[in-house]
Specification:
The structure is a single chain. Helix content is about 45%, strand content about 15%. The chain contains 20 helices and eleven strands. The strands form four sheets. The chain has a five-stranded mixed sheet with strand order 2-3-4-1-5. Strand 7 and strand 8 form a beta hairpin. Bound molecules: 2-oxoadipic acid and nickel (II) ion.
């Protein structure tokens, strides 16, 4: 008997990401419009800015740009979260980072499932922001119990997908046929269902507590609630959106526009009101609606070190303190001005960001280094090698999310009624217990990628090692 080879997890992830995007385009056609707009503006930007295009070529980002997207889902129970972890593992996606949204008035805590090695990220950077509802934050004990009972009864996984997850775990991979089957089955979990599992009365009670609670509890499964393509110019897309009948949220989340982009800037379009059928006590269907699914775009910049991140958090907080009220339609311009002013304290050129250890970088040996006699540069330090153009560097892309931005994205789709904060404190331990593993610290991942690039440079220059 001949054995079929296993499909690489990176390949399964790339295929799944495409399938998810195709499904979401059929479900939310406006997402398709947004994709086209982002692609047009990306192409235009690359034509206009040869330096940007050179940078994207150097890092390989040019190849992943078109397929780059993230999605978001919200689950209701520890068991759902733990099984999703096993499902995402089939595609080489592991939980990175912990995000607590409760202080911002959203009763969830979250992680991002994603690939971690730069080679895998290059093959497909698809990520899923995954939130677990914190039922303990529902005040009324009766409603809390009711929500828990409803969730305990639902099963979001087909028996076939569980079979395939187990097969992957025991055999160590999936064959092509199984991978194809897996993608079809996994897609089912995230599909939209226009029929709620509860009555309109129960829906309303859950909704009154928090719209997000209704979004998780009242449906058959964790429908994908947005997919986000990566743009090279978020300001241009934000301005162009209304011309395409897309209404963006008032302010772009994250840092201000910069010469050298850092972390992540994001904006979304308002969630759509969708028709939903509710069940009534006599078994009849009652028409109603639900608003949950939206579109988002993001521009990614350099990953920051702990020091850079602390500076970012501090400047963002200072801007918010100065504005005094949450940013909205009316003060959007004032907020951008304040933000830009505050961020003048954050160096905006790569050499300074590198010298002050604010960001992570990837190092490459230059052509020049390959033609020179290795012995002549044996004693040069990394800085000297850079100065003499034997090594060049590019910032590492930030692959994660930002809790304050995530809260802003959640809020913009929950209406103004949302509670301002939940008292329950951050609980990473509980989250990890429910997930079944610890989340990976993203800073360590950037550090490792940076180190691997230095090791590759050392090898190319025939050196034992190269330190920062
Ligand atoms: C997730 C919101 C967070 C992001 O990009 O920060 C998010 C959600 O609405 O479920 O997707
Ligand atoms: Ni998002």
């Amino acid at each position: 008997m001949t054995h079929q080879p296993f499909v690489h997890p990176d390949e399964i992830r790339a295929r799944f990401s495409r399938a998810m995007s195709d499904m979401y385009q059929t479900e939310v056609p406006l997402y398709g419009t947004l994709l086209q707009l982002v692609a047009d503006i990306n192409n235009h930007n690359m034509e206009q800015q040869p330096e940007l295009t050179r940078h994207l070529r150097q890092t390989g980002e040019i190849e992943r740009l078109g397929m780059e997207r993230h999605g978001a889902i919200r689950v209701g129970t520890a068991a759902e979260l733990a099984t999703l972890r096993r499902l995402f593992a089939v595609m080489g996606m592991v939980p990175v980072g912990y995000y607590d949204l409760a202080p911002a008035g959203v009763p969830v805590h979250s992680t991002a499932f994603r690939a971690i090695h730069e080679a895998s990220l290059q093959a497909c950077p698809f990520r899923i922001f995954t939130s677990l509802l914190r039922l303990e934050l529902i005040e009324q004990s009766e409603l809390r119990q009711q929500a828990a009972d409803i969730l305990a009864k639902r099963n979001i996984f087909t028996s076939r997908v569980i079979e395939l997850i187990v097969k992957n775990e025991t055999a160590g991979g999936l064959t092509d046929d199984d991978a194809t089957d897996f993608i079809t089955q996994a897609l089912e979990i995230f599909r939209w269902h226009n029929q709620a599992t509860v009555s309109v009365e129960v829906y309303q009670q859950l909704h009154d507590q928090h719209r997000l609670i209704a979004d998780v509890v009242a449906f058959k499964g964790p429908h994908i609630n947005h997919l986000t393509p990566r743009t090279l110019n978020i300001d241009a897309v934000q301005t162009a959106m209304p011309e395409h009948n897309i209404t963006p949220k008032a302010v772009i989340e994250g840092p201000p526009p910069r010469h050298c982009p850092i972390l992540l800037r994001q904006t979304s379009f308002k969630a759509l009101e969708e028709k939903v059928a509710f069940v009534s006590t006599d078994g009849l269907l009652v028409q109603g609606h639900h608003t949950a699914r939206f579109g988002e775009i993001e521009q990614r910049g350099a990953a920051l070190t702990a020091k850079g991140r602390a500076l970012y958090d501090c400047l963002l907080q200072a801007a918010q303190d100065q504005l005094q009220v949450p940013a909205n339609e009316k003060n959007a311009e004032q907020y951008s001005a304040i933000l830009s002013e505050q961020f003048r304290q954050f160096p905006d050129d790569y050499p300074t960001m590198r010298a002050e250890k604010l960001a992570f970088f990837r190092y490459f040996p230059t052509e020049k280094s390959l033609s020179v006699a290795a012995v002549s540069i044996q004693n040069l330090t990394l800085d000297e090698l850079i100065h003499a153009e034997f090594i060049r560097y590019e910032p590492l892309v930030y692959e994660d999310f930002l809790p304050v931005s995530a809260a802003g994205i959640f809020q913009s789709n929950l209406g103004d009624k949302g509670q301002s904060h939940f008292a329950g404190h951050s609980n990473q331990q509980d989250f990890q217990r429910d997930l079944g593993v610890e989340v990976i610290d993203e800073l360590q991942l950037y550090e490792q990628t940076q180190q691997r690039s230095l090791a590759a440079c050392a090898k190319a220059l025939k050196r034992a090692s190269l330190g920062l």
